[in-house]
Design goal:
single chain, mainly alpha, 4 helices
Length: 120
């Protein structure tokens, strides 16, 4: 099996860190937003966001383990994230949200494309 490129490893570590921070902030920020900003996030939105972030972390770990399913999970998290933003977020983020949602899976795919056949 070929060696994973350093930039793919770096990207996966960053995805795991940022999705982990996102899960932590998704747990804490609604409480702050409700008290300080007077913005109320629906509970289903908070729980769904946590699930999507956890799926993203699992996807990144699967890419670490040379599994194509990881890329598919990262793409699914991007689609679910966009759906959540438009369905329940009090702050509709628009096109920037779409770009930022698809950036991680696109970069992961482009990074692993040369070795795609070696992934299971």
């Amino acid at each position: 099996m070929a060696k994973r490129p350093w930039y793919l490893t770096t990207l996966l570590v960053l995805i795991i860190i940022f999705y982990g921070l996102g899960a932590l902030l998704t747990s804490i920020l609604p409480l702050i937003a409700a008290n300080v900003l007077k913005v109320d996030f629906p509970m289903w939105y908070i729980v769904s966001s946590l699930v999507v972030l956890i799926i993203g972390i699992v996807g990144a770990v699967l890419v670490f383990k040379w599994k194509k399913m990881g890329v598919y999970l990262l793409t699914a998290t991007a689609l679910l994230s966009i759906a959540l933003d438009y369905a329940g977020s009090p702050a509709q983020l628009g096109i920037m949200s779409i770009i930022m949602s698809f950036l991680p899976p696109a970069l992961v795919y482009l990074s692993m494309k040369p070795a795609w056949q070696q992934y299971k």
